[in-house]
Amino acid sequence: MNIAIFDFEGTLVDFQWQLKAAMDEVYPLIEKYIVPCNLDQEFIKQADYCRLYNYLQQNISSPDIRQEIINKIDKVFDFFDADAALRWELNPGTHNLLTTLKEADWGLSLASNVGRKALNLMLKKFSLTDYFDLTISRNEVDLLKPEIEGLNFIKSYYRENLLDIDQTCMVGDSVTDIETARNAGINVAILVNGEDKTDRLRAHRPDYLLDNLSDLEKIFLS
Asked: Which CATH class, in words, describes the domain spanning 2-14+90-221?
């Protein structure tokens, strides 16, 4: 079986998450923990939302303090998920592509750094739920993409269902998605006009750089 692992925002829907505004709220929540938890202040200042989240998960030794911080950040991220959900629109060709792949017996899964509440709401709103064998949100993993915890869950799902995996490709819109695929040792197809600018995406050399989702049909089914 061939498997396509889709990102959500910027891939199936357009990119609407307010990254800077979210991080402007997150950083003050962390300041009081930097010294007592021996955290790297310079890294924290420069890290984006997913790498900061992962850094805190991996570098705060106290489980109670770690959970306290992550809970605070999750509340901020949930707010900005809900904010983006007010504007998300389905990318053209999404239903046609997913239908074609399902009819060709592809396994379809979703791995997103969006939280479960917003993800379920939007999958239902856009009638996407039934396409996917498995969906992984921010709330099902300790470490967000570009770490591969979510992708490992997906691979395990197919193996546990006794399905042989022939090839796997990730479909996303960001440098984070490219790095995730590289960390997992799989190919990656990237859409432009998502989280990252085209020049930055091209510099990270995805296997495929696409203008729209419909281009994937030719690539996957050729």
From this structure: alpha beta
